[in-house]
Design a protein that fits this description.
By secondary structure, this protein is of the alpha+beta class. 18% of the residues lie in helices and 26% in strands. The strands form 3 sheets. A 5-stranded antiparallel beta sheet has the order 1-9-10-8-7. A 5-stranded antiparallel beta sheet has the order 6-12-4-5-11. A two-stranded antiparallel ribbon has the order 2-3.
Length: 233
């Protein structure tokens, strides 16, 4: 999801290129994920049509593409359970319905279960944890892609949940969690926020350090980080 960078702009390209084929990363401010549930959103009834064409790559795990009809209202709470602790997130179905629809579908199919988060960056303007590729290489995905959902005004403060990509409209399964205010161009779909307890969990991961081997910044965590499960609702 990430790739190479030297400056802030380089940082961004790095995030995007790192996920060969389709991935990147992004952020938003922390909020309380318990405010509204998937049932609340579904009850509202507003939907939109999404497209999830094949990206020409073999999926890292055998999963079905999401339904093309997506809830386009409200928020959905979710929990990313890791070996370091739980990261609570709130997904913004109103603003990014197709992205949330994909993330929830993959989570419910177990795509993210027992998968590594292979990269963490903890430096000025670049504090992210990258996850979502079962292969742990930064190039794996779900076998489909989908379009960006951008306003052009995206920012990436601590508490942001965003999609990784390899260029415009190449979103797939990879995502990044922003735990330090980060400076990226508005090229990464921001589809949710991270709660305060979740940010503390990522701080604990960052405290273990990393090998700084990634050409765009950061590197593999010194202590393995594993997503045990992603629970929706």
């Amino acid at each position: 999801m990430l790739k190479r960078l030297a400056t802030v702009a380089a940082c961004l390209s790095v995030l995007a290129l790192s996920a060969c084929g389709n991935e990147s990363d992004g952020p938003d401010t922390a909020t309380d994920p318990s405010a509204e549930t998937s049932e609340d959103s579904a009850a509202a009834g507003e939907t939109t049509t999404c497209e999830y064409p094949s990206d020409g790559q073999e999926p890292a795990r055998d999963v079905d593409a999401p339904d093309t009809e997506a809830t386009a209202e409200g928020t959905i709470s979710a929990t990313i359970t890791t070996n370091f602790g739980d990261i609570g997130i709130t997904l913004d179905a109103a603003t990014t319905p197709c992205t949330v629809n994909s993330f929830a579908s993959l989570a419910e199919q177990g795509f993210y279960d027992d998968t590594p988060c292979p990269r963490i960056g903890d430096q000025e303007g670049f504090g992210i944890l990258q996850c979502g590729d079962p292969t742990g290489t930064g190039s794996g995905g779900a076998g489909y892609s989908f379009a960006d959902e951008l306003s052009g005004d995206e920012t990436y403060p601590a508490g942001t949940l965003a999609m990784a990509n390899a260029g415009p409209d190449t979103n797939g399964s990879q995502f990044f969690l922003v735990f330090r205010d980060s400076q990226f161009p508005p090229s990464y779909t921001v589809f949710g926020t991270i709660d305060e307890a979740g940010l503390e969990v990522i701080d604990a991961i960052a405290a273990e350090g990393n090998d700084n081997a990634h050409p765009a910044g950061g590197g593999a965590p010194n202590k393995d980080v594993t997503i045990e499960q992603v629970t929706i609702g």
